[in-house]
Design brief:
The complex is a heterodimer. By secondary structure, chain A is mainly α. Chain A contains 18 helices and four strands. In chain A, β3 and β4 form a beta hairpin. The longest helix of chain A is centred in the last third of the chain and has 32 residues. Chain B is mainly α. Helix content of chain B is 47%, strand content 7%. In chain B, α4 packs across α5. Chain B is elongated and about 75 Å long. The termini of chain B are far apart. Classes of the chains: A mainly alpha, B mainly alpha. At the A-B interface, α3, α6, α7, β1 and β2 of A face α1, β2, α2, β3 and α6 of B.
């Protein structure tokens, strides 16, 4: 009975809030008119951050250099805090320092906005480490948005690309911080803990002792959802009652996963002053998101196969699900979290029905159905360039995007970046599926074991962070290998679009005429959708067949 | 490059101060004001003031006079939560379910609700469905020497109240809360 209604309403409400949010983000990041409050903020920031004024015209190369230096330094800090947490304060439960390969993996994971976790928060982390990771969730999200804004400025023909440090601080403090605080209040009211006290020991009714871990969870969860980070305070992430205690926090969290990625599309349209183009892109993304959600919901309604022929009442697959979120909450969340590179989960993806798991996998393979904050639109930018090129080739004209010619240099960059994604996934799977590095860490037999490896590499390469958590992934080969993949998979698709935009913006503007292929038409939307699906399907379909589909066709084993 | 590092350090200091320290303090203070008890983990205490559990976290019940929760892949360990992460096609799910079915000793015509044989994502799901609770009414009634219908009525009213409290549409029973209610209202025969 109307079980689809919550998902539909959530999507509609999120889009409705994303619209004014995009307006606000443009106001603070790239205002068209001068605003005295924003000018005062910029002035204060220049004073705090040093002599390099935000008005200096900068090249895309120096913007990138600042971004890399900043990320490198944050990685170093995170690595040190995690390794030496036992010497640092705020450690009420006496956690020991992390083993170096795990600290390496975790630091990269949070710096790259992936938040793939090879540890359980409540088992391994002191509160200082958790708060450091929380801080990283702010600035890694801010990095993505800052780069998108820089790209949009270039494409709009602005004289200055802006200052990276300035942008990152503005996004963290003026956008992410107020939203996170607003979200943390209903979370606290619903029962998400917010305390610096250590875990509590209780005497259960039957006389046993139960240790209940807690901490500053509400603050952590709020930014985890909003910044498409997805790193959980506790091991089971948003399936844990302390991260997601009610039906309503679940819907609210799901909405906040999608909020900023949606706003980013319109932000791009606003800054480049191509709102119709942004609408078309938005609709393409929304179509993909909705179709995956419908597909996953239908598949997940099938009962757990392992229970066939037992005297058990028919129900949807309840393995790995929490009851309080209602029957269809898990597939909607699974699609939202993987389509946006968030990676928090409200049900265990390892226990999804085999066919259902194709939806989250596809979300990560395409990585553009809104995508991560900022970076989703950057990925989409590459697909747009590709689609415009294909359309141009079909009619035999030089392709143009936003009044600029797309030529060999831009196409090389775009294609190499799009192809690097499957290279990381397929290459990694090939190595780990053929060696004990991967094979010895599987927890499920047969094709599902392969799916576990497929999922882990897809998640690392998409900077997603969810996982088939049965995989015993806290080993040095997994930590180091996926760590390096996350690093490349994060920064190549950030730098390449900037380079393309840098090269495009130095070209002469061509006035749009009757022969111009319009990027704000329905035809463009269809070509874009086709490009995404064909590239995704061709590259990844064999994986879906070998993993989930093969498992579906097998009997219970 | 040195200059970049220097600039980065200033942004790091600023964001650490504002998004790390100030944000945490602000949320902590607000939590103190709006939910001074809940923020500690929704704990419940007995008359001596000793915490006996959290209303959001499942704890294990095995005695026949209590309602039993869903199975847990981590044995209700609230300091290392997690799911089974078994594929739905994994035979271990079947083995676990057969074991649980034996424990419940069902008559041939009743069917087991699926939530009682599947583990939750966190292993700490505090709820079971109303059907799963009604299935246990007979056992609880025997142990507490009351009519089965008394327990059934209690469960129905309780589910209704909880639904209104949570403002959602799911017929769920919070296991710990209901067991506390049972202990308050009904005596039971101490097991030997």
């Amino acid at each position: 009975m109307f079980t689809w209604l919550p998902a539909v309403l959530t999507l509609a409400a999120t889009a409705a809030i994303a619209w004014p949010l995009a307006w606000y983000m443009q106001l603070v990041l790239s205002p068209t008119k001068s605003n005295s409050l924003i000018e005062r903020w910029n002035h204060c920031l220049s004073l705090t951050l040093g002599n390099r004024s935000h008005e200096n015209p900068e090249k895309w190369g120096s913007y990138c250099r600042s971004m890399l230096a900043f990320n490198y330094l944050t990685f170093a800090i995170a690595f040190l805090v995690l390794t030496f947490q036992h010497y640092l304060p705020l450690n009420p439960d006496n956690k020991t320092g992390l083993e170096p390969s795990l600290a390496f993996h975790t630091a990269i994971s949070f710096v790259t906005n992936t938040n793939l976790q090879h540890y359980s928060g409540e088992v391994s982390m002191s509160y200082l480490s958790q708060l450091t990771l929380m801080w990283l969730q702010f600035i890694s999200a801010a990095t993505g948005i800052a780069v998108l804004v820089a790209l949009a400025r270039l494409m709009s023909g602005a004289k200055s690309i802006g200052n990276f440090y300035h942008d990152v601080a503005t996004v963290s403090i003026l956008i992410l911080l107020p939203l996170s605080f607003l979200l943390s209040i209903p979370l606290v009211l619903s029962g998400v803990p917010m305390t610096m006290a250590g875990s509590v020991e209780v005497q259960t009714l039957e006389g046993a002792t139960q240790t209940i871990a807690r901490g500053p969870v509400a603050a952590f969860v709020a930014i985890k959802q909003l910044g498409t980070n997805g790193g959980g305070f506790f091991g089971p992430n948003s399936a844990h009652p302390f991260e997601n205690p009610t039906y309503w926090t679940n819907l609210l969290s799901n909405a906040s996963i999608l909020l900023i990625p949606m706003a980013c599309v319109w932000l791009f349209g606003r800054i480049t002053q191509r709102m119709r183009h942004a609408h078309i892109v938005f609709i393409v993304m929304m179509l993909l998101l909705i179709s995956f959600t419908v597909y996953a919901t239908v598949c997940e309604k099938q009962p757990t196969r392992g229970l066939d022929n037992l005297p058990i009442a028919t129900s949807s697959n309840l393995e790995g699900k929490e009851l309080r979120f209602g029957p269809d909450a898990a597939p909607f969340w699974a699609v939202s979290t993987t389509s946006t590179s968030n990676g928090s989960v409200n049900a265990m993806h390892d226990s999804l029905n085999p066919l259902t798991s194709i939806a989250p996998l596809t979300g990560m393979w395409l990585n553009v159905e809104f995508g991560g904050v900022g970076v989703g639109m950057l990925n989409m930018f590459l697909f747009i360039v590709l689609a415009v090129f294909l359309a141009g080739m079909m009619v035999g004209r030089t392709p143009e995007y936003l009044s600029r010619k797309i030529e060999a240099h831009e196409m090389k960059l775009a294609l190499l970046t799009i192809l690097s994604h499957p290279l990381f996934i397929l290459g990694g799977i090939a190595i780990f599926a053929s060696t004990p590095w991967g094979r010895d860490t599987l927890s499920n037999p047969g094709s599902h074991g392969l799916s576990q490896i497929i999922y882990e590499f897809s998640s690392a390469a998409a900077n997603n962070g969810s996982g088939f958590e049965g995989l015993g992934d806290n080993t040095p080969p997994w930590n180091i290998f996926t760590g390096i993949i996350m690093l490349f998979a994060r920064f190549i698709p950030i730098i390449a679009p900037l380079a393309i935009a840098g090269s495009l913006s130095s070209k002469r503007l061509i006035p749009e005429g009757a022969g111009t292929f319009r990027t704000d038409s329905w035809m463009f939307g269809i070509i874009l959708l086709g490009t995404i699906l064909i590239v995704g399907a061709l590259l990844f379909l064999p994986l879906a067949v070998l993993g989930p589909i093969a498992e579906h066709l097998q009997a219970v084993q | 490059m040195l200059q970049e590092i220097f600039h980065s350090a200033r942004v790091i200091a600023l964001t650490m101060g504002v998004c790390g320290f100030a944000y945490t303090s602000l949320t902590l203070t607000s939590a103190l004001l709006v939910a001074p008890q809940k923020r500690l983990g929704s704990l419940v205490y007995n008359q001596q003031g000793i915490p006996i559990g959290s209303l959001l976290i499942a704890q294990n019940f095995t005695r026949s006079e209590y309602l039993w929760p869903r199975p847990s892949a981590v044995d209700y360990n609230a300091a290392a939560a997690g799911g089974s992460n078994l594929s739905p096609t994994n035979v271990k799910i079947r083995e676990r379910s057969e074991e649980i079915l034996r424990r419940f000793k069902l008559t041939s015509e009743t069917k087991m609700p699926a939530d009682l044989v599947t583990t939750s994502g966190s292993g700490l799901d505090p709820h079971i469905t109303l059907e799963a609770a009604l299935l246990q009414a007979d056992r609880i009634a025997k142990a507490r020497q009351v009519e089965t219908t008394a327990i059934q009525t209690k469960l129905h009213t309780f589910a209704q109240q909880q639904k209104q409290k949570r403002l959602d549409m799911n017929d769920l029973i919070n296991v710990l809360e209901f067991n506390l209610l049972l202990d308050n209202e009904l005596k039971w025969v101490e097991p030997k």
